[in-house]
Automatic annotation (TrEMBL):
GO terms for biological process: rescue of stalled ribosome. It comes from Flavobacterium macacae. It holds the Pfam family RF-1. Belongs to the prokaryotic/mitochondrial release factor family. Keywords: Hydrolase. PROSITE patterns: RF_PROK_I. Residues 16-32 form the Prokaryotic-type class I peptide chain release factors domain. Its EC number is 3.1.1.29. It comes from the Bacteria. This is Aminoacyl-tRNA hydrolase. One of its GO terms (molecular function) is translation release factor activity.
Amino acid sequence: MEQEKITSELKFKAVRSSGAGGQNVNKVASKVVLSFDLWKSNALSEEEKLLLEQNLEARWTNDKILILNCDEDRSQLKNKEIVIKRFLQIIKQGLIVAKERKATRVPKSVIKKRIQNKRNLSEKKENRRKPDF
């Protein structure tokens, strides 16, 4: 994955922020909306695209477009930087291949300890009862 190549494929749109802020919010488009089309990307290989599609399944639209937005700052430039960093972090996490889990047996010592704890608890409860003469 080449960061420069991917960032050149990003599309940005400036939108007016919502929420409190008074006059500044009403006249300045400081919110930045980033969109990235997975299948039109030339920076990623086919394997990487399939891996991203699988790992980030919940984040894609029906057209396999990733949409992120940022309105944390009053500056459009800072919002753009923040959303690019967030995007690159998401892509890096999506490209991580999960290790295959190896099934292991439960150690005998763990089984022994569990049974001993059960026995101790049952003895404790047995001792709480009234004696039967």
